[in-house]
């Protein structure tokens, strides 16, 4: 049937079907901070990270095996260097998540969407648009209201850790885009290398801090194993493969917009499931963060095209607690939360 005579509802239905998996990724990312709080305590964070990515690596490795065999020495080293930075993001985000509310963590980590374009402008020595600077200022005001719960109290430790994760996440995206060794490298392969190095860091730290991963695994009940599998299979593997499919099936801007709803879902899960309570000014602060990050996404300066296409970041955090690469889906897009 000619396009001009086709049923308009058919195209609309097809668009909805393409959007649903991406929206579901934003939902599971939004739930990830709550999931972390269900499976980790301050003393078991590192052991939980070993378990989480120990489940992911073999499955991802099977898919990426052929691509891994083709990696050059420079690509292995470049991916390993990025993996060290990625491990810092996971540690900051996860420790932050167990020291603050799921709502605060999900909203604060979304600031990476504003921080990354600011860093890009600073490196390029160009002034960002005034509208973007206004959005950044609004985001700062929103975080101040949110973390102070409407008062003048200093931010909690968890809030500061998640804010640190947002800063490191922005640096990670900028570094990845400028690491020549991994430009054009197979996304699956470089993702596996980064996650493998990060997991190695967690395993080394676990030898010095807290209980052993196998001890924590034995202590988990059915519910905790369910949350851990949710983090591993849905927040990481599922999210990563949906993004790979989505950037080919729909527009990068549309994917970025849908994934940008993650902090909203984090707030929904935090309030309805975790029972987080927010005062009127804190609610206003959360709303300002959501508005500011979306405003910043739309007004962010567009970076100059790189000589070669950079691979997507490895699966977190993070807008949420699951790291998965979204830098390839549009300006200002960020890896998900840990």
TrEMBL record:
Coiled coil: none annotated. Belongs to the EamA transporter family. The chain crosses the membrane at residues 45-64, 76-95, 101-119, 131-148, 189-213, 225-247. This is EamA family transporter. SUPFAM superfamilies: Multidrug resistance efflux transporter EmrE. InterPro entries: Diverse_Substrate_Transporter, EamA_dom, EmrE-like. GO terms for cellular component: plasma membrane. Keywords: Cell membrane, Membrane, Transmembrane, Transmembrane helix. It is found in: Cell membrane. It holds the Pfam family EamA. Residues 22-147, 157-292 form the EamA domain. The keyword Ion transport does not apply. It is a multi-pass membrane protein. The keyword Transmembrane helix applies. Residues 302-316 have a biased composition (Pro residues). Residues 302-338 are annotated as: Disordered. It comes from Kitasatospora xanthocidica.
